[in-house]
Amino acid sequence: MCRERLKWLCVFLFFAVLAAITFRCSWPADVVFSASDLNVGRLALKKQLLPELLVGQFWGNQLMGGSGYGLTLFHGLLALVPLELFADGIYGLILVLGSVSMVWFLRLWKRGWLASVVGALIAFWLNSILLAASGHAYKMEVLAFSVLALALIEKAVRAASVRRLVGWSLLAGLTVGGMMMEQQDVALLAGLFVAPYAVLRSVQVRLSGGRWVGFFVPLALVALLFSGATVLKSYNSNIRQAASVQGDVGAKWDYITQWSMVPDEWPDLIAPGWSGWHSGHSEVPYWGRIGQSAGFDETGEGFRNFRLDSSYMGILPFGFALLGCVLGWRGTERGFLLFWLIACVLALGLAFGKYSLLYRGFFELPLMSSIRAPIKLLDNAQVALGILSAFGVDGLLRLGMEKRIGLRLIGLIWLVLAVVLLGVSVGVYLFPERWWSRFEGAGVGAFSDALLGVMAAGWRHAAVYALLGALATGLFYWRQAWLAGALLVLGLSVDSLLLTTKYFKAHDVGAVRCGNPVINYLKEHQGVDRSAFLDQGGIYNQWLGLDGPFHGLQLFNIWQMPRMPVEYELFLREVGRNQLRIWELAAVRHVCMPASVFRQLEEQSVLGEAFEPVLRYQVPTPQGMREDLVLRYERAIPRFALFENWIPVAREEQCGRLVNETHDPGLTVLVEPESGLVAQRGGARVKALEAEISKRWARVEVANKLAGVVRFSQRYQPGWRVFVDGEEASLLRLDYLSMGVWVPAGAHTVEFRCVSGVMPALLSGGVLVFALVGAGGCLRQRK
């Protein structure tokens, strides 16, 4: 037992050290790991919203803001851990969790220690590890939890008693529920492999009726109760209300399948850098078609391509996975291997998305038509490859102990493959003409020499690793199993490090923390209103995605919103024809724009008077330094405002009325006829209200001689409640997107309370405690 624990400690330490080396870019002081979609600025914003983020809160950035709750394990951990430590450590922690879970799963199947470590390296440390650079921590969590769920399911079906079976089933249910909490679309894809595996194993071990109930019922109930509220909320916001997955089927297909693996780019799977490193790379740009917008070839509009990382998995995983199937085909694990072979082939086939007939049928299944980016199925294929590869390495070990002649043939195949790959590498240099025209067509002809060099290097890399496979096979032949396993572990670790070196980098958080004159000015003067950037490129993109969120700015600009609500899309399409009107309605108090644009506005005296310059500064552009301004927008309706004039207008007509130049949004607010309010005119212009704001509520004091409507420039969402003098009142939908409440004449206290997630949090917390206590009781050793 002590020896077994020591081996587990070594496994944990190995992956922990590998993670530390992998993320070495964040070792220096005052830097943090750079994750584009979930950078330190975004994490800082989330941390500012915690712990209320777990149970319901609201925010003001991105157009009209929003509200909701994010009850996830990720957010719970972020609430407890210091920001910079979390940013540097979360991805390594996920990788270690997933890797140790994979080793556990493979050890349950009696695979050797080194073979199990090889399987874990293949499953998590190639291709999908690059999700960290993109900031896709939730996807990585789902992959790790899916493997942990496999191990717990395996423990359950192998349990000696019903009591222990129920205990392991409860833990498996928590793990599956955790998957669904973190990212629902990725969890659904993982569930397509985890659920059939659970059914397969229950059939293989021939669970009786009672044991079948004890296995599936606790697992399903705990998973659904633990994550059900989060899943339903996600379905409502990401499917029912998302413009991108509603309407025209053709447009929906184009949106969902935009990121599909391209068939003729398959060499990327085994030759790193074959098609370039990533879109926009300064020396070796990606020249393929992944991420290309529909119709780009005909119209030239949208993305030529958009890929930020690599699809590289390596030649060894495919080779050893195939060996695992061949060597174990006649054994007792045939059904197990067949399952994972089918899973791997299906995942790879579906990853080709719009280029795959298989995916067309998959797209027609319920919910599947709302899961974007088929290429993400490569991550599931990688897990299957890891499992099969471990069986392949272990099979070589057993073959070396029994029929050594088979190892000669396998070693020879590896050698021949290495020679072929090396020949392909040489061929890139000998016959470059076929690639020159392709590079020109992809708009990267100026980089042809560099692209050819990296392409040839990728094939040489694959040849070296095929040679490594031959050497490892030879060591198995000479019965040096530990040396062969160590060589594979070392080779795969180095492969992972070489890959991540191309993509992993760090941000100077010290500079972000200090801010700059523009960010600091907006932070000091924004109050409860919003700020907007006319230019979203260059340095402004960094301010939108990193510096602004880090300092808690309420920015109007939409930095990322792939599943935009239908109402937002309509509002921007209709009212967006008048940018100044949108800023006016959205309480944009400060606008950053080039000085040249402001001079054009000044020429129109009416527009020029609406802006007051408050700060001059310069920003770098490709054409050199440019003078920009921070302008105070005088026409902006305050975030909290009192209107004495209103008119009922049907919702479907409000956008047309709002963009009409004859309508004065600072004088009259639009209400819906269903509100029951009769039009009121003749009052004064809008009045600003002082507000007291927390993360869950906003409170204003109103004193007026006339009845009025309090307008809160915040997106109207069901679930909000409003109280006037402590009594709940009817929440009004105003100006198409905003919310408010009618108040009678006199002095009143108005309080808006956001969507609450307290009950879902209590339910999930109760299920967590129940499952852990129940599992502990079931698994406790009886004396």
DSSP helix fraction:
40-55%
Strand order of the largest sheet: 12-9-15-19-18
Structural class: alpha+beta
Instruction: Quote the distance from N terminus to C terminus.
Output: 19 Å
Oligomer: single chain
Percentage of β-strand residues: 5-15%
Number of helices in the DSSP assignment: 29
How would you sum up the global shape?
globular
Low-confidence stretches: none
Gyration radius from CA atoms, angstroms = 29 Å
Tell me the number of strands: 20
**Largest sheet, strands/sense/barrel:** 5 strands, antiparallel
Q: Give average pLDDT, whole number.
A: 93
What tags apply to this protein structure?
D-Maltodextrin-Binding Protein, domain 2, 5-stranded antiparallel sheet, alpha+beta, 29 helices, 783 residues, globular
Describe what you observe in this structure.
Among the domains are: 515-577 and 588-633, D-Maltodextrin-Binding Protein, domain 2, CATH 3.40.190; 640-695 and 697-753, no CATH class. It is 54% helix and 12% strand. It has 29 helices and 20 strands. Strand 10, helix 28 (651-659) and strand 11 form a beta-alpha-beta unit. The mean pLDDT is 93.
